[in-house]
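[Target chain]
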Amino acid sequence: MKRLSCSLFCLAFWAVSLTAAEIRTGTLLELRLQQQVTSYSSRPGSEVRATLIAPVRVNGDTLLPMGSTVRGKLSEVKRIGWGLRNLRASLRIDFDSIQLPDGTSHDLKTRLTAVDNAREKVDDSGKIVGIRATAPMGYRAAGIARNLFFWDPMIQVVLAGTTAVVLNFPEAEINFPAGTEMQARLTEPLDVDTTWSTPLPKLATTEDSRRQILNQIRAMTWRTQTKGSAKPADIVNLVFLGDPEWLERAFNAAGWAAADRLSKSTGWKTFHSFAEARPYPSAPMSPMTLDENPASLQFSKSLNNYSRRHHLRVFNQANHWNGHPVLAASSTQDLAITVSFSNRRLIHVIDRNIDNERAKIVNDLVYTGCVDAAEIIHRPWVPNSSEVATGEHILTDGAVAVLELNPCRNPYRTLPAQDPMAVSGGWWQRLGRQVVLTIGNDFTFNNPIYQAGKGAQFLVRRAFKKDYQAPPVRASLLPVPERQTDLSPVTLPDD
């Protein structure tokens, strides 16, 4: 019965109490699309449905629970087509209502603020703006090389031919498949008259069993190291209690992919993904160790750009819990790839607030119904501020999220089956668009004056470390208790 309730909690096992509360303007809504949306095939006025994948909590109360359905419409759609009028595709989605699990609905006003882990950007008005087909790093680097030899037409021809052979022209039409995650903010306050709680139980039911898990957490190494150089790296911020196969099924149901092993072949695929701004969901990760042991599992979640992704590494532990393995994991969110002058190489820039990624993973896995029990346990010996191997500064509350898994035989999946939509025209249109955009790019963006200005802008932003804006703080399904100073049983507040 315990596993049945956990598997269905998103649909039917919310506890409801009557109250009156206001959700303020600016509150973040984390959404997952229920259908495909494209700039090429979608039409203005079409309905758009999404699922709320993180709870909205105010003063400890859950006012909008996970699993609520958010509806809206496409108010604007612009395709690139032949590239004669538009260099970039764009979309505007206006979400205007939410239906709670008990069937009640509320009107709301929102503005889209971000598409999670995507190459597209959202401007200040809430419009999604796609990339220029000639903007990926590989094409920009090729343009710089051609500018260095602008005086020699033969070298220009050779470089242009080499670029065409080595790099594929990226598809720049916007394509958001079902499962794409995005964020919107309320632009007007929302009044609700109910609060919600989930029946997710705590880990231990007796003081002895609680003491056992707390002692295991205290004995666990809390920080990974880089392989070879043994530099301090990511912090262990998740612990899973259950078989590795259960964990794999849970992450698969949540839309995550197992990462490929690092090799020459996958390294070449990674280069192409970065240079061409194209998807590689199972891209490999840099090797790290915990207690001198490599990761046994690695998972990542990304949409259409290797530069941005959620990811974690899982390490086996010697201990067991109720006859099942204990697995430790470190997780961070990659925001972008940039040049690190101190490391003299390309590195991923991560979200400094690593607790955001912990909340993301907890919310994703609990939503699948593959988690029987979970809670946050504080570790006062873990510093709140430190640096990772690349020198980036990270912040954390020091706590670890501990999740007890079930076999995950029938996970709850939110994405209905549907026929795919066309994301671009035929090969003849793509070829014609490539010619038009390439010629236009050579006269506008690929000239020495423009390239020099962009280079100066990059150096200034790097000097002041203003390259990337930190994501907003994510709402966690698990309430975080006050910081503990010893190993006494942790008391969590009621949801």
